[in-house]
Specification:
The chain is an all-alpha fold. The chain is about 75% helix and about 5% strand. A two-stranded antiparallel sheet has the order 1-2. Helix 3 runs parallel beside helix 9, helix 4 runs antiparallel to helix 5 and helix 5 runs antiparallel to helix 6. It is elongated and about 70 Å long. Retinal (RET) binds next to helix 5, helix 6, helix 7, helix 8 and helix 9.
């Protein structure tokens, strides 16, 4: 391991696996495909949010607009992330493995983290345009979301550089990031509880689903951060299975936290619009 550390320094563990054993055809291709499907789904999501914009009353439309903004930034980022994977590796016919290409950029997940700087605040603000807060102040919730969201990502971004070279540093930054994450969960729980008060039954049901989806999908990100240790224990595992598992986890997390979340918010807003007399189906009826 120390030889590898000398050659790769603070590179992420994907590069260590590439230099240590290389990737089999299956592991390399599964990673490439999962990364590609990620941005394809974001583009499909963009269409959905644009087309359904008018199915909700005007005051809820900012939620769909924010989803569309998230789709554009995520599609672009995931495209770059996917290119980063394929350009970092070359096929070596002698060993029949994908290995690091000489003189190429190494692979790094850092693009994702910086993309979250845009998407995390957008996703958190989005729900505030659908629910009506009964106790909390809009500006206070917005600032808490913004502050803890940004702090959670920046601390995690720094930590991920140390995932192989210094497990202690990696875990300390991860733990600090987790404190901000708990704060976000706490504020989001309050927002959803307040949002349910006074909402029509159908919207209440969707808000319940949103909380479960939120918990599940946001927890996947720290899971992906920890992946080399989930497979390796106290030392990072130089295992291609862990690399593929990280790509899959990120893609499931991205599709759930951005696309499915946005769809559920659209359904909630449609239910609320209907209860307030905005009946989209009837708008084009000729009388
Ligand atoms: C990090 C570092 C380790 C500890 C924790 C993390 C949490 C990350 C989360 C990211 C959510 C991203 C989303 C992106 C959507 O575009 C930073 C991995 C707790 C929760 C929702």
């Amino acid at each position: 391991m120390s030889d590898l550390i000398e050659q790769l320094g603070n590179a992420t563990f994907e590069n260590y696996v590439a230099l240590d054993s290389g990737f089999t055809e299956m592991a390399y291709q599964m990673s490439a495909h999962v990364l590609t499907v990620g941005y394809a789904i974001m583009l499909a999501g963009l269409l959905y949010f644009a087309i359904t914009l008018k199915t909700v009353a005007p005051k809820y439309r900012m939620s769909s607009i924010l989803s569309a903004v998230v789709m554009v930034s995520a599609a672009l980022l995931l495209f770059i992330q996917s290119m980063n994977w394929t350009s970092a590796m070359v096929y070596d016919t002698e060993t029949a493995r994908y290995v690091l290409g000489d003189g190429q950029d190494l692979f790094n997940n850092g693009y994702r983290y910086l993309n979250w700087l845009i998407d995390v605040p957008m996703l958190l603000f989005q729900i505030l345009f659908v629910v009506t807060l009964t106790n909390s102040k809009f500006s206070s919730v917005r600032n808490q979301f913004w502050f803890s969201g940004t702090a959670m990502i920046i601390t995690g971004y720094i930590g991920q550089f140390y995932e192989v070279t210094s497990p202690t540093t990696f875990f300390i930054w991860g733990a600090i990031s987790t404190l901000f994450f708990f704060h976000i969960l706490f504020v989001m729980y309050k927002v959803i509880q307040e949002g349910k008060e006074g909402a029509p039954a159908e919207a209440q049901r969707y808000l319940g689903y949103i909380w479960i989806l939120f918990l599940f999908s946001w927890m996947l990100y720290p899971g992906a951060y920890l992946m080399p240790y989930l497979f390796g224990g106290l030392e990072p595992a130089l295992s291609e299975t862990a690399v593929v598992a990280r790509h899959i986890t990120y893609t499931i997390a991205d599709v759930s936290s951005k696309v499915i979340y946005g769809i559920l918010l659209t359904l909630t807003a449609q239910a609320m619009s209907k209860a307030e007399g905005y009946e989209y189906e009837k708008l084009d009826t000729v009388s």
